[in-house]
Specification:
Elements: H1 9-12, H2 16-22, E1 27-32, E2 35-47, E3 75-80, E4 84-91, E5 98-109, H3 111-118, H4 130-137, E6 153-156, E7 164-167, E8 181-184
Antiparallel strand pairs: 1-2, 1-6, 2-5, 2-8, 3-4, 4-5, 7-8
Helix pairs in contact: 3-4
Length: 193
């Protein structure tokens, strides 16, 4: 990867579904004491304010979802199913409670470190799912609310993805009919077709 500046907070201060599509091809980087890990974003899901029953902020602001309320350009990291962390990128103006879930990455940097953290050799299984990619990159509760411009988490611009598939979201029970999941057409790295 060449030297690039992280996406600015203004990139995220827009309509969530636009951000979800435009994040495809960008690179999520996590810097930790163990080393740098990074992957190209190939799959996302949007969670919009007010009308989305699957959103953690649908009913009200809580201690758990506070980071989701902004400002934009920060990470919303939460623990789910008693076993996985998930990372979302906060979008829209402060107070809107919107975010994009990063669902899958194509591993780029720190692959050996990812393999150790995940306990798997198969590179295809390192980041093909939101819980897997958080484990591989070392993203946990300590990064909740962190700026996405570094020093710990950053998102770098990437090459624009030309063919994007839009489908209904997966792994949720409410709002499943909304076509707010996006992935790069033909990518072998997505969580599932």
């Amino acid at each position: 990867m060449g030297v690039k500046e992280p996406l600015p907070p203004e990139f995220y201060d827009r309509a969530t579904l636009d951000v979800a599509r435009e994040l495809l091809g960008c690179v999520l980087v996590c810097e930790s004491p163990e080393g740098r890990t990074a992957g190209r974003i190939v799959e996302t899901e949007g969670y919009v304010p007010l009308i989305d029953p699957a959103s953690h902020a649908y009913r009200r602001r809580t201690e758990r979802n506070a980071a989701m309320w902004g400002p934009p350009g920060r990470a919303y990291v939460y623990f789910t199913y008693g076993m996985h962390f998930m990372v979302n990128l906060v979008t829209e103006p402060e107070g809107q409670a919107a975010a994009v879930l990063v669902r899958a990455l194509e591993p780029l940097d720190g692959v050996e470190l990812m393999q150790r953290r995940r306990g798997v050799e198969n590179v295809r299984l390192l980041c093909s799912g939101p819980g897997r990619l958080c484990q591989a990159l070392g993203i946990g509760a300590a990064l909740n609310g962190t700026l996405l411009q570094g020093p710990h988490l950053l998102v770098l611009p990437g090459e624009r993805v030309r063919a994007i598939v839009s489908t209904t979201r997966i792994g949720i029970t409410r709002g499943v009919d909304l076509p707010w999941r996006y992935y790069e057409a033909g990518s072998p790295w997505i969580s599932r077709r």
